[in-house]
Recover the amino acids of this structure.
């Protein structure tokens, strides 16, 4: 048993810190802590910053060398994510370098790899993920977007929803129904496609989320012609491809690391903010208990993330462990947001702008944003059912 | 980073699991609840023979020279089996403390006794104040020639009624700062003036009231520094807290297994209750707590074992596990329904012990305060 990172990982951590010290503007902070969305300014900053990451080879550090990657280990990536996340710095391209890149390496044809991997690796091409539909959320397999096979293309009609950042994306990967036969199992009639967002008939319409910010989209397909060479894997074999995607399940160390940063910020705040009698909040027993509770839960979430990463490093696919970690990490975010709001009281209602805003007025929107964490990426309920049935072997209802 | 176990640790675990399955079935746990001693001297002797009592003690004194993580593996199995034994107070709390802070004479005198199973030790720390803070210690020890004279009452002392020695924390000097003036003594339980009564508790443990009535303790029995014993007491609390977390980890896992087994077997409305989503989600919540408990406990054990500064990790573990194990036991009861509420069912064995484990060596609130200090508040 050893909870330490190895010398290679620690050396890399140091390198990342020095890089961030040098490349991030002093006192850098994103416009919002609501990480499900991004402001236009932050988006442009991130795009520019990703060039620097590309320069270090870090955008694709986990890729095989054959595809221009550095073949860095899962543990090194974990250390990297801890460093960049704690600094709230851009560091990682989840959808592109994290998902579709590795997926094409597994399932893509040579042409697909040649066509798409360089653009992902250079950070030039942005991708979005089109899975959910208005009538297919937790029950993804029931999706209805239709892809009809024609001579040299698939004709796609339908609609996706919750497509994060589709309004910025150059390409989309999505699931569509290629076999509508009601007799077959739903998931057996699904195919996995790639499509250029400039293809005639595709329209991304941003949706404002609870904070009013733009994060996800509706994506409409109106007689969109998707070339046959954009099918990934077998026709009607899309579900297996999707499962492979889910097996790249990140340890989601972002959640406990963001919370560690938030706790540190709140400690600093409580050490100087005073209550109505002039006593620093940090002296209040309840304040101490609440902050410690978040810090403790963040540590538990962290070691469970380490477990997922350690198992991945051994070549395992820690499906159940990922579900456990997702539940604890996302619910932690919500508890932490609530604690932060309790500490700020009425001040927590303010947004950035008013001169009275505390902690830069960012806690209110963080609190709102956190509502989505137990829903996105597989609801807590779905995760619990997976743990119970696939993990603990309880019979399906 | 490696969150797995060595081959030796896996062998230790298997041996412990096999031994305890045979020697400590639930019938034994129940028998010991009614037993005057509360443990089996035969099992104790066998554990000594297996080298368990000296496991973490230096080889020089007859121990196994193994580390706290190895001990943690053993404690996890003991917790799983609900082993009623003075092992914890003797080995984890007292043995490791004497190994850490004893003089050479003290180590040579006491550690071989512990390793060979020839002496039972316990810790007399808490009092009516029921506090693990320095302020909680009021029992006085007054210097008298070459001796100290201890008077006062200790409460919640585990296994004191069978102990041969007690590590007693007493106040030897009055000071404005209550953390000063505390001394730890190794007290022979046969000393005149000591009386011991087993307290009736809901947790079926042998927590005792120990009254010291002008008990003479020779100066050479001071463990650590006279008047400056508080740092050592804090270390003992860390050892106890970390060790208890490991026991709770084993117990939590046992409760999860028992509960999922029941959910698969119990039929209502024509189907196993485990097919109902509410029950499934209870079990999933237990799993999250069980996994969190296991890994935060091992992190604490490992940090302690490495000799690293571990105050934060140990307190984080005890804060989390104290509450998490309680939650697991509560959900275990809920899933078992009426039958789990009976004395005959094993679920209550876990639930009642979970409460004691939650409280001993500091509950969640106590440890969260220590965490708050570590955070810089």
């Amino acid at each position: 048993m050893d909870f330490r990172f190895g010398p290679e990982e620690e050396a890399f951590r140091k390198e990342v810190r020095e890089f961030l010290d040098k490349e991030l503007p002093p006192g850098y902070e994103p416009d919002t802590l609501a990480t499900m969305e991004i402001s236009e300014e932050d988006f442009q900053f991130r795009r520019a910053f990703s060039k620097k990451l590309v320069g270090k080879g870090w955008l694709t550090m986990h890729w095989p060398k054959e595809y221009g990657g550095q073949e860095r280990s899962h543990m090194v990536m974990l250390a990297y994510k801890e460093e960049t996340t704690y600094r709230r710095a851009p560091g990682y391209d989840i959808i592109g370098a994290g998902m579709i890149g590795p997926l094409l390496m597994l399932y893509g044809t040579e042409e697909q790899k040649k066509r798409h991997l360089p653009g992902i690796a250079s950070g030039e091409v942005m991708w979005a993920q089109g899975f959910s539909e208005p009538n297919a959320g937790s029950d993804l397999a029931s999706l209805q977007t239709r892809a009809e096979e024609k001579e040299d293309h698939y004709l796609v009609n339908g609609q996706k929803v919750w497509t994060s950042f589709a309004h910025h994306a150059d390409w989309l990967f999505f699931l569509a129904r290629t076999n509508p036969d009601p007799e077959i199992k739903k998931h057996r009639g699904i195919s996995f496609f790639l499509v250029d967002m400039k293809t005639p008939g595709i329209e991304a319409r941003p949706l404002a989320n609870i904070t009013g910010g733009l994060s996800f989209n509706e994506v409409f397909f109106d007689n969109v012609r998707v070339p046959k060479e954009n099918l990934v894997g077998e026709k009607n074999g899309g579900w297996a491809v999707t499962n492979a995607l889910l097996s790249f399940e990140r340890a989601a160390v972002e959640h406990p690391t963001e919370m560690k940063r938030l706790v540190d910020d709140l400690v600093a705040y409580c050490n100087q903010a005073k209550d109505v009698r002039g006593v620093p909040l940090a002296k209040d027993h309840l304040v101490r208990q609440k902050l410690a509770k978040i810090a403790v839960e963040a540590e538990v979430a962290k070691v469970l993330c380490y477990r997922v990463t350690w198992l991945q490093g051994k070549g395992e696919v820690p499906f159940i462990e990922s579900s456990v970690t997702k539940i604890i990490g996302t619910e932690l975010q919500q508890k932490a947001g609530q604690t932060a709001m309790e500490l700020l009281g009425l001040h927590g209602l303010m947004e950035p702008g008013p001169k009275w805003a505390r902690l830069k007025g960012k806690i209110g929107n963080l609190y709102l944003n956190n509502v989505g964490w137990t829903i996105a990426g597989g609801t807590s309920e779905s995760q619990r059912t997976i743990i119970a049935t696939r993990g603990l072997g309880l019979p399906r209802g | 980073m490696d969150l797995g176990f060595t081959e030796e640790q896996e062998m230790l675990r298997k041996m412990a699991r096999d031994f305890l399955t045979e020697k400590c079935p639930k019938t034994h746990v129940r028998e010991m609840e009614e037993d005057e001693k509360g443990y089996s001297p035969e099992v104790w002797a066998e554990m000594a023979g297996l080298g368990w009592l000296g496991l973490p003690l230096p080889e020089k004194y007859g121990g196994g020279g193994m580390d706290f993580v190895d001990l943690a593996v053993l404690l996890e199995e003991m917790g799983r089996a609900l082993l009623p034994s003075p092992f914890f107070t003797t080995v984890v709390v007292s043995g490791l403390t004497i190994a850490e802070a004893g003089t050479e004479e003290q180590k040579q005198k006491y550690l071989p006794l512990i390793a060979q199973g020839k002496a039972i030790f316990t810790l007399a720390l808490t009092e009516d104040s029921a506090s693990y803070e320095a302020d909680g210690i009021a029992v006085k020890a007054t210097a008298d020639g070459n001796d100290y004279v201890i008077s006062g009452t200790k409460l919640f002392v585990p296994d004191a009624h069978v102990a041969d020695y007690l590590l007693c924390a007493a106040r030897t000097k009055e000071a404005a700062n209550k953390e000063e003036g505390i001394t730890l003594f190794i007290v022979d339980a046969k000393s005149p003036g000591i009386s011991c009564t087993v307290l009736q508790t809901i947790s079926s443990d042998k927590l005792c009231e120990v009254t010291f009535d002008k008990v003479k303790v020779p100066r050479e029995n001071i463990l650590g520094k006279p008047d400056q014993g508080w740092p050592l007491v804090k270390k003992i609390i860390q050892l106890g807290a970390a060790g208890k977390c490991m026991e709770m980890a084993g117990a939590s896992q046992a409760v999860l297994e028992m509960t999922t087994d029941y959910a698969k077997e119990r039929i209502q409305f024509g189907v196993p209750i485990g097919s109902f989503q509410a029950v499934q989600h209870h079990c999933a919540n237990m799993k999250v707590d069980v996994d969190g408990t296991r890994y935060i406990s091992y992190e604490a054990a490992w940090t302690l074992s490495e000799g690293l500064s571990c105050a934060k990790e140990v307190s984080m573990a005890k804060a989390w596990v104290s509450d998490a194990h309680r939650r697991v036991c509560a959900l275990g009861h809920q899933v078992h329904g009426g039958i789990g509420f009976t004395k005959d069912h094993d679920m209550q064995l876990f639930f009642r012990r979970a409460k004691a484990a939650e409280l001993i060596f500091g509950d969640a609130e106590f440890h969260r305060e220590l965490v708050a200090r570590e955070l810089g508040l």
